[in-house]
Amino acid sequence: MLMPPLYTYLGLLLFLIFSLQTPSCSAANDTLAAAQVLAVGDKLVSRNGKFALGFYKPALPAGSESKYGSITSPGWYLAIWFNKIPVCTTVWVANRERPITDREIKLTRLKFSQDGSSLAVIISHATESIVWSTLIANRTTQAKNSMNTSAILLDSGNLVIESLPDHVYLWQSFDDPTDLALPGAKFGWNKVTGLQRTGTSRKNLIDPGLGSYSVKLNSRGLEAQGSNCRLLQKYTVGLLE
């Protein structure tokens, strides 16, 4: 039986290591207030300048077209990337399975829900269409007063929805990992809340959609699986909670 190439397992291990019209957001700010929206061309930048959040369209690095062939991007994504390196390298992608088309992107905004408890990527045509929302993945305890909230891109690269004045995180991107985990991010199963943080590979170099491999940590250890849910490898490690 053929086994997946070595880089498949190396990639999985690297995941653990790195493991109403409203005003537009300022490009030099780390915070999106409940009354603001984020449009294409806008971005949040962490205070240390290391990370940025915004809408981006993946592209092949200059000069690599001959190596990878005619790979094209399926569309635009809300993502967090390293802000200080020349090649756009993402660390988190929101709408992995629902790319935004070129025609839609000018009508697309990241905005808060009316009660301020969640963020959503909205396309505004005659009616609003939700592309992605934190409500889908929100498993944290809701704050008593969720009206006074803001979204903050922390120095760690973690995007959080924070409720004030109690500073409760209603949601955080570290709880919804993509294909890698940054330092400081927890990974695996939270035995108290039942939250399972699972990493899933990308489809290819410029398509961040869900790929063929995933890795998760549970009470039995670290498990890597293929697209057919077949267990590829199992490691015995401790829980992270």
UniProtKB/TrEMBL annotation:
Q: Which GO terms describe its biological process?
A: response to other organism
As given in the record, the signal peptide range reads: 1-27
A Gene Ontology term for the protein's cellular component: membrane
Task: Provide the topology term for how it sits in the membrane.
Answer: Single-pass type I membrane protein
Q: Which UniProt keywords apply?
A: Receptor, Signal
The principal localisation class reads membrane
Enzyme Commission number: 2.7.11.1
Q: Which CDD domains match?
A: B_lectin
Per UniProt, the enzyme's principal EC class comes to transferase
Q: Which GO terms describe its molecular function?
A: protein serine/threonine kinase activity
**InterPro entries noted in UniProt:** Bulb-type_lectin_dom (IPR001480), Bulb-type_lectin_dom_sf (IPR036426)
Show where the Bulb-type lectin domain sits: 29-174
Pfam families for the chain: B_lectin
Q: Where in the cell is it found?
A: Membrane
Catalytic activity, per the record? L-seryl-[protein] + ATP = O-phospho-L-seryl-[protein] + ADP + H(+); L-threonyl-[protein] + ATP = O-phospho-L-threonyl-[protein] + ADP + H(+)
Q: Which PANTHER family match?
A: BULB-TYPE LECTIN DOMAIN-CONTAINING PROTEIN (PTHR32444), OS11G0208700 PROTEIN (PTHR32444:SF231)
Protein name stated in the entry: non-specific serine/threonine protein kinase
